[in-house]
Amino acid sequence: MTPAPPPHDPRRTALTAWLSRTLGGAAFELSIASADASFRRYFRVHLARPVAGRDGEAHTLIAMDAPPPHEHVWTWLQVARLIEGAGVHSPHVHAEDDAQGFLLLADLGSTTYQDALDAGVGPAPLYRDALAALARMQARIGAADCATADLNRYDRELLRREMEYLREWLCLKHLALELSTAEHRVLDRAFHWLEEQALAMPVAFVHRDWHMRNLMYVECDALPGMNPGVLDFQDAVVGPVAYDLVSLTRDAYRAWPRATIAGWIAEFHARARAEGAPVPASLDELTLQHDLIGVQRHLKVAGIFARLAERDGKHRYLDDVPRVLGYLLEVLPEHAALRELDHLLRERIAPAFRAKSAAA
pTM score, two decimals? Predict the structure, then answer.
């Protein structure tokens, strides 16, 4: 039977009514599939009778609730079509209602790459498939496709706004650090230098969150090319070609040895060159770009995790901040222009974070 929505949840009430119409009155039940760090929610639709899907009969579908004006399903749909057109596995869209912010999607399952690793699946095949899919996306989604989808560019304003999360949310709000004028200037100089480096890098389609929690594991040898299933791509932009690579190799949720990361960079470089993606001809140059755009990303992520804790009450993300700061402390000393930032992070920010975590 069609489920009765819980009280005081008008969005779920509206979604249930829309699904009933969309499914032609067929019986279904809803369960929570997931919620992410945004306003979006996902429900698993359990069907009384299976429906034909792209990959065979489906007994479950996924309903996305993306409430306007906070979220825009139009953007999600545009990017989904680019990814699917590139031959990468994203959720097929069965029905859409842009005005209400509802989508009915194929169900890619509930096992993320992170879950698969935790369950004992070896990293080699997972990363092989993820690197191959990334190279394919960057080669097959061209500038004209990105323009048609109206993707934003990773411009100076966006790069700076993201790095400022570290200052605003981690330093000032979460840690209550009283930064001196000189320390503010250290951040300003480092941010400007990182912007200049990023803007000089070759660009491609950037998923922007290409990591273990957004890549789905499909345990089916009979369906080659199904891994990874790709989610959470609605914030895609045109930006530095190494951005998604470092999101994967220096994942905020799981660390790997540096030699392993170097091997993955080399594997991606070879695949991307073979596919025709716009990576540098030199592996050393790609490695440098990987490290530097990684600094920009990790500054952003550390700040966002603090924001999720302070603004949204999602304190679990603070557990991953030490890993992200560790990536920064590994790379910053290697670049003269970032040594002031390294000193500030090493002597002030990281110790303050450790002290606050210990006190909590």
Answer: 0.90
